[in-house]
Amino acid sequence: MTGLDTTAIPSEEAVAAERKRLQYQKKYRRTLRTTVYSLIVVAAVAVLVATMFLPVLQVSGSSMEPTLSDDDVIILLKTGNFETGDLISFYYQNKLLLKRVIGGPGDVIDIDEEGNVTVNGELLDEPYVTDKALGECDITFPYQVPENRYFVLGDNRATSIDSRSTAVGCIEKEQIVGKVVMRIFPLRRLSWIR
């Protein structure tokens, strides 16, 4: 007795369709794998850039109003060059604070009772300050900034705790994280910062 084979041989069209399906599946998997790897690399590069060159911070508090408000999101630029008027972020008691550089190493700072600031005998033009005030101050003026340090003030002079207080004092260069360059949130206030 001869056995009858009951399995049908697929047609050429069915074989071609199956071959096409398998090739598509292979191509799809390769594309998906490449896309996932690319996204992982992009995310790793973004994290690396954000931590090494352009940290992103969220503002907390009102010491920098009206320039920066509570909940603004800003980008810093890691740099070692700071000039009078630059907004910087620095470490103080395991927190990041934001203040404005008023004077660098060797500069002589003086603040009168009305809150007018002079640096090396010249009155500082401060368009970013809306209400001048002496604020919380327990140092004697005129004050000379020590070497490798910066004298910083908040823009909201009445409420800011800054270099006018011995609690904070002048900031060492090593404490500085970077200079504020841009506000990115809220979007309606997107702007470069100076």
Description:
It contains 1 helix and 12 strands, in the order H-E-E-E-E-E-E-E-E-E-E-E-E. The protein is an alpha+beta fold. Strands 1, 2, 3, 4, 9, 10, 11 and 12 form an 8-stranded antiparallel beta sheet that branches. Strands 7-6-5-8 form a 4-stranded antiparallel beta sheet, with no helix packed on it.
Highlighted features:
alpha+beta, 12 strands, four-stranded antiparallel beta sheet, rod-shaped, 194 residues
Low-confidence parts: none
Distance between the termini: 97 Å
Biggest pleated-sheet summary: 8 strands, antiparallel
**How many E-type strands?**
12
Q: Structural class of the secondary structure composition? A: alpha+beta
> What is the residue-averaged pLDDT?
88
Taken in chain order, the helices and strands follow as: HEEEEEEEEEEEE
Number of distinct helices: 1
Q: Based on CA inertia axes, which overall geometry fits?
A: rod-shaped
Rg from C-alpha positions? 30 Å
Beta-strand percentage range: 25-35%
Estimate percent helicity. 10-25%
Give me the secondary-structure topology:
Elements: H1 12-52, E1 56-58, E2 73-77, E3 87-92, E4 95-103, E5 108-111, E6 117-119, E7 122-123, E8 143-144, E9 149-153, E10 171-172, E11 176-185, E12 191-192
Antiparallel strand pairs: 1-2, 2-11, 3-4, 3-11, 4-9, 5-6, 5-8, 6-7, 9-10, 11-12
